[in-house]
Design brief:
By secondary structure, this protein is mainly alpha-helical. The protein has helices at residues 12-36, 44-62, 65-87, 92-112, 114-117, 135-156, 160-170, 172-177, 182-208, 218-230, 236-252, 260-281, 283-286; strands at 123-124, 210-211.
Length: 293
């Protein structure tokens, strides 16, 4: 039987490393889609939800981490392709609204299909992979996966796909005149984001030994969006730095001498202020002016 780690007794250094390593791949994926591509995709937390539940419901049923990971990846890809299909059928505003609607629908299914998901109770006692049961080994495992994803995105920034996504964001009609397919570029971008979400959620629930729907409330998306904007939209190095700094800030707030009833709203207010400031500073990057002849 795996050992269930008592989080407060975990060395805080390993905790920080693990939290950052788990969060960064999905952050890089969303930076690529929303930051570089200017695609108003507001449903990544919905993809995270189905990927996580697909993974650990399969794990509970089969006892196989490999089958659980495969199920999570398939679920993430299926809904990523759905969002990609919506992205080249709708305009930007329509995609933003529809992606939120799909996320809310998925979340409602998770909360109400209690015979399968246990609803608001979540899935407890989730084991870790047998070879990474200690704090240090799990931190090393997640860091290794994070490094591989980071190298992939640094390489991706230099590829034809990245240039196509940037061109579509800057001027779709000009990009189409150059032979760039919006459908092809969006499908590739959404698939990459879906894979990063499946990777993150494979580790996240293992780390806390719990899969709970409260981890997939809308504030989780606000955090994802805040880091993307604060790190300069579309910038991989910026996303890395912003993820590290804001994760340290989030974890550091735990040490403030406030009760949880005060600390939770205080954290949301602080992150809201950071998001507003980042949007104001990065407004020309987020909302570039259309080129004129």
């Amino acid at each position: 039987m795996p050992r269930f780690y008592n989080l407060p007794e975990m060395p805080f250094f390993f905790h920080l490393i693990t939290v950052i390593a788990i969060a960064l791949p999905a952050q890089l994926g969303y930076t690529f889609v929303f930051g570089r591509g200017k695609i108003l995709h507001f449903g990544p937390i919905g993809v995270s939800t189905v990927a996580a539940y697909g993974t650990f419901l399969t794990l509970n049923a089969t006892g196989s981490f490999l089958l659980g990971l495969c199920a999570g990846v398939l679920m993430a890809l299926a809904f990523s392709l759905l969002f990609a299909w919506l992205s080249f059928r709708l305009d930007s505003d329509g995609l933003g609204i529809m992606s939120i609607a799909v996320y809310l629908a998925l979340f409602a299914v998770v909360l109400n299909w209690t015979s399968l998901t246990r609803g608001a109770l979540g899935l407890p006692r989730i084991p870790r992979v047998p070879f990474a049961d200690s704090a240090m080994s799990f931190a090393l495992l997640t860091t290794g996966a994070c490094v591989l994803w980071t190298l992939f995105f640094l390489w991706l920034d230099r590829t034809k796909l990245a240039r196509q996504v940037s061109a579509l964001a800057e001027g779709e009609w000009h990009a189409k005149a150059l032979g760039i397919s919006r459908a092809g570029a969006h499908i590739a971008a959404f698939v990459i984001l879906g894979l990063t979400l499946a990777s993150d959620n494979f580790f996240y629930a293992q780390y806390y030994h719990l899969l709970h729907p409260s981890d997939y409330y809308f504030p989780a998306f606000v955090s994802l969006l805040m880091i993307t904007v604060a790190g300069k939209p579309g910038s991989t190095p910026g996303a890395i730095i912003a993820t590290i700094l804001l994760s340290l800030l989030k974890e550091g707030l735990r040490f403030l001498p406030f009760p949880s009833a005060v600390l939770g709203p205080l954290r949301l207010m602080l992150f809201g202020i950071i998001l507003l400031a980042a949007v104001w500073i990065q407004r020309d990057t987020l909302f570039p002016k259309k080129r004129t002849i």
